[in-house]
Each structure stands twice: as C-alpha cells, then as structure tokens.
Design goal:
Length: 88
C-alpha cells in the first residue's frame, strides 16, 4: 500500500458563494487520516471561481470515493472533479 496525491476542483453552486467561507467548510470536512497539502481559489470566468484542493492519502480501497462524497456533502459545493492523481 502506497500513498497517493490527488488534486480536486470544487465548483460552487453560484457566483455569490463566498469562496473563503467555502474553503473553511472544506477544510473542516477533511478527515484526520487525509493530509491537506494546499488550497487555492481559481478564477474561471465572469465572476465564477473554483476551489483547488490538493490532498495526500493512503492508497487503500474506497478512501478516495468516501472523501469525494464528503466533499460533495459540504454546503454550496455543486461539483467535485479530480484533476490529477499520482502515486507518491
């Protein structure tokens, strides 16, 4: 079993969502066994922003899926997309 690094892009439900508040809610949703490597707000277009999230976790079955479901459960998150996955 190794370690995997994943970069997610989280899209908010609307342009009115305060991205700093969303970032704090996402930070609170990260379990103890997943290491938060970085977080960044990215401009998309016409006022729409996305939250980029870089994490490190154990490469065990089901952990990624459970974490994605936890991210989708955060209020004001419309979509969770995996941008990059790599073994560390």
């Amino acid at each position: 079993m190794g370690t995997v690094g994943i970069v997610y892009r989280l899209m908010p439900t609307s342009v009115e969502v305060d991205m700093k508040v969303l970032a704090e809610a996402v930070r609170a949703a990260v379990p103890q066994d997943i290491k938060l490597r970085g977080m960044q707000i990215q401009d998309i277009a016409y006022g729409l922003k996305a939250l980029l999230l870089s994490v490190q976790m154990a490469d065990t079955g089901g952990v990624e899926h459970q974490f994605e479901e936890a991210l989708r459960a955060v209020p004001h998150v419309e979509n969770v997309e995996v941008l990059d996955t790599s073994l560390l």
